[in-house]
């Protein structure tokens, strides 16, 4: 297990993380959840010592991580970030092989491992092994990133908004596959996200942070049904509104309008996905497209308040 004890990171007068005491149980997914700037990434980076704490400490399986070299520590922890950062000049296969090669595995074992991992993340090895990162879609590149993080079979996987840059359909597919892999391999996963539905879907436990401190740790059900403070109730309550949008098809809200410059959303997507796309792209609308990419109509930010099932109230 990973234990954080009174972990603090200060930048000048700002506490990015303050007195954080938290245990990530072995073989589970724990989401570090919270609004922008609450200290999620700083916490994750203190676990693998990409950021050194100002005070407090991290224990891994009972050992203070300061007793380990950062390199040895990181070898035991896969790390996946939003933009995977694959080596552009290396093939997909060589990217996945990077850590096993560093560890001096025999060539045949590395080759077998690369193929095993590509299959595991849903990429057919014969098709993808020799491709360059530039030839991949965002979702495929992110899959390679996950395969690379798992290459040396680390017991711990640290993931920082790993699905954040993906379109909604690729995101849901990869979330499902990462969950499936986690269940099969029983990795200890720490997942940074600000997306409540993602945390609810993926996490066994949620650590909700507020301004560098722990607001509540518990199961997703605990946080939704037994919030420890008004902040938790309000933050998790945003989800109820979002869930309602999840039941409405974006196509049902689409109306004629100027689709120029708007991000595109498939007609079968729901209104929650439309909202996520607007927030991510910084637009106040999306273009809903049908088969063949023809624009059906636009959904504006203000249209999201109108549920056609309730008569447009
Ligand atoms: N290198 C740094 N120097 C100064 N301040 C920093 C540094 N890194 C983070 N901070 C500050 O620490 C706080 C927490 O940042 P952190 O990136 O951990 O938040 P976060 O919850 O991951 O946010 P987001 O969801 O927006 O990525 C923020 O106020 C941020 O501005």
Give a short overview.
Pfam families: ABC_tran (PF00005). By secondary structure, this protein is an alpha/beta fold.
What small molecules does this complex bind?
Answer: adenosine-5'-triphosphate
CATH architecture descriptor name of the largest domain: 3-Layer(aba) Sandwich
What gross morphology would you assign?
A: globular
Distance between the termini: 49 Å
In percent, how much strand structure appears in the residues?
15-25%
Domain count: 2
Helicity level: 25-40%
CATH topology of the largest domain: the name is: Rossmann fold
Mean pLDDT, to the nearest integer, reads 88
- What is the alpha-carbon Rg in Å? 21 Å
Biggest sheet statistics: 6 strands, mixed
CATH superfamily membership of the largest domain, which one?
P-loop containing nucleotide triphosphate hydrolases
So how many helices? 12
For the record, what CATH class of the largest domain applies?
Answer: Alpha Beta
Spatial strand arrangement across the major sheet:
6-7-8-3-9-10
How many beta strands in the DSSP annotation?
13
Q: Helices and strands: which structural class?
A: alpha/beta
Element pattern in H and E? EEEHEEHEHHHHEHEHEEHHHEHEE
Low-confidence stretches: 307-313
